[in-house]
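hi! just following up on the protien thing from before. the input was this:
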Amino acid sequence: MARLAVVLALCAAVHAERASAADTSSPVERVVTLLKNLKTQVETEGSEEATNYDKFACFCKKTNNKKVNAIDAGETKKAGLEATLTQKKALAAQLTADIQSLTGKQASMEASLERATELREKERETYEETHADTASATQGVADAISDISGSKAFVQIKDKVKKTLALAESMGMSTATKSRATALLQAMPEVPDQDYSFHAGGILDLLKDLHKDWDAKKTSLEQEEQAAADAFNKAADAKRKEIDAAKSDIESNTRRLKTTEGEIATATKDHTETSATLSDDKTYLADLTEQCEAEGPGVGPALREARRGAHGSHEGAEHH
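and the predicted 3d structure came back as:
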């Protein structure tokens, strides 16, 4: 009505001007023409307003649906990334713990092998000393037997026998053998006499027994050393395999940890970007809702209806 009053006033003004300009048309005709023109203009503007309102309402609804779907997708993606991060971080922690445990185990096994190797070397040194003494005693007994059998000078034989028996005693001669040797040495005369052959025969038997014992002892030492060496080498080989296995596991877990840390970095970046996008979408949707409801009284209910059907069909929005 306000617009009509303004138009009528304008018409009156125009009529007055044209009347003064000697317009030949009648005043009624001019008013009728102006009214017709005004009607057409009002109808056109009304139609444009209605069209613009429909377009605005359709825009609000379509954009609302799009943002609601984007927010739903963002929430789902964010939740998935958080689950991935939780899983990957747990795996990284486990791998780190495993690497630390394996590293400690490797160090312990290497220290154990080093100690065992040192002990074996000391055992070997002791064996070599004992074996050398036993071999020397055995050879000494063999030489004494050879001297007696070769009928060397009595004094040489006696000195040889004394040295041999002394060496045998230092090497652990049995009490019975020691008593036997002592008795024979005491019975040996300082100079040869008629009983020399008898005493020599007794000494020879004793030396042969000693040679047999010391030779057996030397063989036993060699066997024990070989068994100890074999046992050590077997245990050392097994320990080295365990150490190599630990090293391999450490290398494998280290590679997995590096890959996992890369995945965590990627997922963290995606989560940050997704959270930012999600926040922007929520802010945009809130602003859109406020603006759309402010611009048109019918848009708000349309938006609420659109939200209820955001996950359903969008035929209405596509139609617009």
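The CA atoms of residues 110 and 243 lie 7 Å apart.
The domain at 108-262 is CATH 1.20.120 (Four Helix Bundle (Hemerythrin (Met), subunit A)).
cheers
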